Amino acid sequence: METNYWAGLSLIAMGGLFAGSFSVPFNRSKGWEWENNWLVWSVVALIVAPWVVAVATVPGLLGVYAAETGPLAVVAFFGLIWGVGAILFGRGIDLLGVGLSMPIMLGLTNVIGTLMPVVLRDPGGLLTASGLRLTAGVLVIVLGIVFYSVAGSLKERGAQTPRAGVRSGFVKGLLVCLAAGILSPMVNFAFVFGAPLQQQALAAGTDPVYTSNAVWSIALTAGCLVNAGYCIYLLRSRKTGALYRGSRRVNWAWAALAGVLWYSSMMLYGMGGSFLGDAGVSVGWALMQSLAILTGNLAGLFTGEWRGAAPVSRRIMWLGLACLLAGVFIVAFSR
């Protein structure tokens, strides 16, 4: 495979590491509820970071948008839908923890976000040799998700006391995670349908590796409307807005760091996708989400989420991990 392909995979792999670990800083915040953390995260990850990067890397950014109003609206639409998924994603982490929620949500996001762009662009592509390898890799990843779900169910069922951060039953958390996994791939759809924006940015003199930044600023801003709106609703209804007053300054720093890490994952995905060409929205997406799952699982292990779990649940979890690793390798070589 050519050097550019591996360069793209390397950038996307780094994005996967950030995507899987972005929520870890939330564990360091003290005295804040979920909505306090998520509102700060939303502003940084979905407004500040993408617009700063887009303005810095895309010459004549507003002119690019003015020239492609149709694709602009489509990207914003998918961004809004993704925004609902992002809220559920955050709630899933809150309900089940990083180590269990990440594999379920990112795994389902992986499947839909990987295969649907291929189906929409060229359904026959799934029947080619590379398409079959890609599908096989995704199916192995799905098997890993099943093992993770079973392991998580056994872990929660056998727990002597409720794990910190789990505020409801496993079933409720699982349903939230499944819904998040279905809606979260919409950000990849925004990337797919934002191709005209990238082409316009390229024509305006943008370096090819940065053209995706013109898409993220719009898609994520639309998603922020949903996320920030829901957080503000919770802050008012639960009276948790008062927690901001007199809170530790480091809480703001941890939530902002989570936002920077998450946006960095999307930026690196877009940059890596520019090296992969058409494979960027399928192979690239599958690779990033799979590595995010692995990173999230390791983060869960290091933060003690599997401490005290029964041996059988740990064995099943490691079996799921093996499936995810195998799926990553199959997808990486599916081209």
| Mass-distribution shape | globular
End-to-end distance? 9 Å
Mean pLDDT: 84
Got a strand count?
Answer: 0
Alpha carbon gyration radius:
19 Å
Low-confidence stretches: 160-168
The biggest beta sheet reads: none
Please count the helical segments.
Answer: 13
Portion in helices? over 70%
Structural class: mainly alpha
Please indicate the percent range of residues in DSSP E strands (runs of 2 or more): under 5%
Q: Return the string of H and E elements.
A: HHHHHHHHHHHHH
Q: Could you characterize what this model shows?
A:
- By secondary structure, this protein is mainly alpha-helical.
- 77% of the residues lie in helices and 0% in strands.
- The chain has 13 helices and no strands.
- Helix 1 (3-21) packs parallel to helix 12 (283-302), helix 2 (34-57) runs antiparallel to helix 10 and helix 12 runs antiparallel to helix 13.
- The longest helix has 30 residues, at 129-158.
- The chain is globular.
- The chain starts with a helix and ends with a helix.
- The model is unreliable at 160-168 (pLDDT under 50).
